[in-house]
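This part of the workshop introduces the protein records we will be handling. As an example, a complete record with its sequence and its structure tokens follows.
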Amino acid sequence: MAGNFGGSSSIQPLSVGNVVSAGLRLYRSHFKDYFLLALKACLWFLVPIYGWAKCFALIALISRLAFGELVNQPESISSGARFVNSRLWKFLGAMILVGLIAIGVYLAVVIVFALFIGIFVGFFGARFQQTSVALNLLIGLITIILGVVAIVGIIWFLTRFYLVDLPLAIEENVDAASSISRSWELTQGHVWRIFLIGFVAFLITLPLQIVLQIMTTILQLALAPLIQDGSPIFQLLYYVLILPISFSATVILLPFWKTIQAVIYYDLRSRREGLGLTLRNHEI
């Protein structure tokens, strides 16, 4: 089986490059199936509540199918769909929980940031009364440092939930809360590696995003004089042209990110549980 990154007899952790290349190969070889699933997911997202649950389940299904290819247990779309649909509301529940956690983390960071700056200004303000410029510079420097620390902390914390939908889509006896715990467990000690993989994957998608941004900018410049006249027809035309571009970008890129996620999930499980990668050249 040429093309394996590591067989079950000799399991080696995947490099950042191997993770991205495996995700890219899966995306390319199953583009049609994954694209259609992503399209359905994005369309379902337009429907409140039930549509959101369907959207999250279909997105997770892409990762489930990709993971099945990685471990040489390919699954039909209909079979995978039955599994994720049986957990429809658990996907929605997991996303709501992660959203609440993210909001809580953001608010905590803002409060701590504000308290620290307030205490700092109150403590050192009297000492710098005659040199307010120095105080302002010092406050600016501290603000920048704290801002960087806050951003790094938020990235680290939220990356721990990067795999939250994978256990629900693949593993047995998992609910919304335990799926979050499972993501936290698997990502322990690998946050910055996951971030690096995401950055490399972003660089791969960058040319497409640049092309789409150029197209959007050209349309904006071409229609701007007409829109400024206040004509509702031209405003409608603007949205009819711009929204499909953004929508198409999401549908095209979403399967790529989900295959990358599936490879990361495989890789982290292989480190802990000894899964063997069997990425098959005759299908991939």
